[in-house]
Specification:
- This protein is an alpha/beta fold.
- It has two domains: 193 residues, Isopropylmalate Dehydrogenase; 139 residues, 3-Layer(aba) Sandwich (Isopropylmalate Dehydrogenase), CATH 3.40.718.10.
- The protein is 41% helix and 18% strand.
- It is built from twelve helices and twelve strands.
- The strands form three sheets. It has a six-stranded mixed beta sheet with strand order 9-8-10-5-4-11, with helices on both faces. Strands 2-1-3-12 form a four-stranded parallel beta sheet, with helices on both faces.
- Helix 1 links the parallel strand 1 and strand 2.
- Helix 1 packs parallel to helix 12, helix 8 runs parallel beside helix 9 and helix 11 crosses helix 12.
Length: 352
């Protein structure tokens, strides 16, 4: 198999960590007899500087023509103007919508050798192995109308939280299918005591559950879920929720692992290329220093092989190499070590 991968290194530490993923993929290709072809395009702040747009139509076309898209990071202080007409994040939102990747999967598994990197007590982390499924192309981030106006002399800002039943159904169905291969428990997170969209979400989730009698469903309000993620994270198997709640909860869940730099994510739709984007930001404070943790990006490459290329053995080989690298005590600065970004990747490649 010779997959075509579209690289969007983006801003900040993006180019540094994407380079390590390419390094690992080339090592996997050499080991298993695959030839990966790579094409690189711009997104985010660097695309604004070059083209005046956070992503171009030509880049979107190239993404759609690929087997998978690997994204570095977008944004930074240079483009951090809330009033700016063009912002780096617009490129990411447009990319998600264009590819139709309606579900973001974020697995959170605690490596036993990183327990002390988390601010939580080790006993809180025992048995934590959860998956958050976040709806990605609907909700508050895409709802219309939106904007600002003047009402009775006061400035008013409006955002619209909107969901259609089919948008909810497809992402909840995906969550149930994921749960069937895990511990067969789905937690649907909403705010049904306040929001009409959440009441629709809860109704549709219940309807979907009828097709999966082997999977247990529970409904949990988002405020309770956010508390339980810290107080008792091991109780969760698969969590599924809407766009903004998922954005917040997945960042909270990353604390369990001790660093955003070690967790991967996969954004998937119904066919077409998957988008493998970071859960961390562009980290401008360490960009160019060669100290960013590449593990999350390397593990995203493994998810890419699994979900977009159908290469399960190769994906497991990367994940095993990462596990053994961490077990050997190899660490970047965010985990209390001294390895550079490139040296950390070298350690993983060595264990392949």
């Amino acid at each position: 198999m010779n997959p075509h991968i579209l690289l969007l290194p983006g801003d900040g530490i993006g180019p540094e960590v994407v380079a390590t993923a390419v390094q690992v993929l080339e090592a996997v290709g050499s080991k298993y007899g695959h030839v990966f072809s790579f094409r690189e395009e711009l997104i985010g702040g660097c695309a604004i500087d070059r083209y005046g747009a956070a992503i171009t139509d030509e880049t979107l076309a190239a993404c759609k023509a690929s087997d998978a898209v690997l994204l570095g990071a977008v944004g930074g202080p240079k483009w951090d103007d809330p009033q700016g007409k063009v912002r780096p994040e617009q490129g990411l939102l447009r990319l998600r919508k264009s590819l139709g990747v309606f579900a973001n999967l974020r697995p959170v598994r605690i490596h036993p050798d990183l327990v002390n990197a988390s601010p939580l007590k080790p006993e809180k982390l025992a048995g934590v192995d959860l998956l958050v499924v976040r709806e990605l192309t609907g909700g508050l981030y895409f709802g219309q109308p939106r904007g600002r106006d003047i009402v009775d002399g006061a400035t008013r800002a409006v955002d619209t939280l909107e969901y259609y039943d089919y948008e909810i159904r497809r992402v909840v169905d995906l969550a149930f299918r994921q749960a069937q291969g895990r511990r067969k428990r789905v937690t649907s997170v909403d705010k049904a005591n306040v929001l009409e969209t959440s009441r629709l979400w809860r109704q549709v989730a219940t309807e979907v559950s009828l097709a999966y009698p082997d999977v247990a469903l529970e409904h949990v309000l988002v405020d309770t879920a956010s508390m339980q993620l810290i107080a008792n994270p091991a109780r969760f198997d698969v969590l599924v929720t809407e766009n903004m709640f998922g954005d917040i909860l997945t960042d909270e869940a990353s604390v369990l692992a001790g660093s955003m730099g070690v967790l991967p994510s996969a954004s998937l739709g119904d066919g077409g290329p998957g988008l493998y984007e970071p859960i961390h930001g562009s980290a401008p404070d360490i960009a160019g220093k060669g100290i960013a943790n590449p593990i999350g990006t390397i593990l995203r490459a493994a998810l890419m092989l699994r979900y977009s290329c159908g290469l399960e053995q190769e994906a497991m080989a990367i994940e095993s190499a990462v596990d053994r690298t961490l077990a050997a005590g190899r660490r970047t600065a965010d985990l209390g070590g001294k390895l550079t970004t490139r040296h950390m990747a070298d350690e993983v490649v060595q264990r392949l």
